[in-house]
Write a sequence for this structure.
């Protein structure tokens, strides 16, 4: 993802990376080396121990039947993880209602090509 961001350094983007304890190995917040995988001044990184962002994102992301991650945890309503969502400029959360993303894809490792194509349209 850092490469995709670098290719689009002139776009006025603001990003959030939300780290969540999803896997058994996620017993602590990510270490500096893990967070350094994406170093871009436009991106803030957070650790969401209580999976609050996941809980807020799920209703909006589940409206569309297109698969996001293809895992039972998402289907069963437990955790939304390993996805990218891009929101239009000015999109805002209102209470517990998250806005609909303009773009979404998952898993992240397979989403770079789709994200590149979407960002080209924003230039």
């Amino acid at each position: 993802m850092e490469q995709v961001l670098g290719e689009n350094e002139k776009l006025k983007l603001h990003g959030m990376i939300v780290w969540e304890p999803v896997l058994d190995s996620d017993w602590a917040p990510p270490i500096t080396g893990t967070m350094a995988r994406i170093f871009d001044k436009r991106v803030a990184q957070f650790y969401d121990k209580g999976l609050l962002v996941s809980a807020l994102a799920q209703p909006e992301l589940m409206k569309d039947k297109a698969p996001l991650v293809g895992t039972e945890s998402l289907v069963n309503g437990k955790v939304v993880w390993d996805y990218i969502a891009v929101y239009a400029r000015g999109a805002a959360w209102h209470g517990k209602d998250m806005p609909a993303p303009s773009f979404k894809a998952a898993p992240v490792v397979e989403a770079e090509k789709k994200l590149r194509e979407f960002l080209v349209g924003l230039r």
